[in-house]
Amino acid sequence: MDENIITVFVEDRAGTVNPVEAPTDMSLSLMEILVANEYDILATCGGMALCATCCVDVMEGEEMLEPMSDDEYAMLDTLPDLLPNSRLACQLKLNNKMHNMKVRLHAET
């Protein structure tokens, strides 16, 4: 494995899981990788934690993520179907600890 490439497993809303390779040396967020790979997320606010349209549920690897910011928590708290493992993909900056993380696109609101 290239030391600057990780694999994130993404489950779409149909239940299909696909591996997505992502660079960790470009300061990209998970949202940017999902959009670049044409996953069905809106990302309306462009990564500012203002819309929650990039919400994902972290199925594996949650313990490797940075703690949630107050802004992220406040935005997630507006979702009617929030899960304990829900996060905003725009707030998850890719790093090597995320290798083999599995996320599921959150249900559409």
TrEMBL record:
Coiled-coil intervals, chain numbering: none
An annotated Gene Ontology molecular function: 2 iron, 2 sulfur cluster binding
Keyword annotations from UniProtKB, A to Z: 2Fe-2S, Iron, Iron-sulfur, Metal-binding
Stored Gene3D superfamilies: 3.10.20.30
Domain spans labelled 2Fe-2S ferredoxin-type: 4-109
Membrane-crossing residue ranges in chain numbering: none
Keyword Flavoprotein: no
InterPro entries attached to this UniProt entry: 2Fe-2S_ferredoxin-like_sf, 2Fe-2S_ferredoxin-type, Adrenodoxin-like, Beta-grasp_dom_sf
CDD domains to which the protein is assigned, alphabetical: fer2 (cd00207)
GTP-binding keyword on record: no
GO biological process per UniProt: P450-containing electron transport chain
Cross-referenced PROSITE patterns: 2FE2S_FER_2
Highest taxon, organism lineage: Bacteria
Essential cofactor(s): [2Fe-2S] cluster
Family per record: Belongs to the adrenodoxin/putidaredoxin family.
Protein name: 2Fe-2S iron-sulfur cluster binding domain-containing protein
Organism of origin: Taibaiella lutea
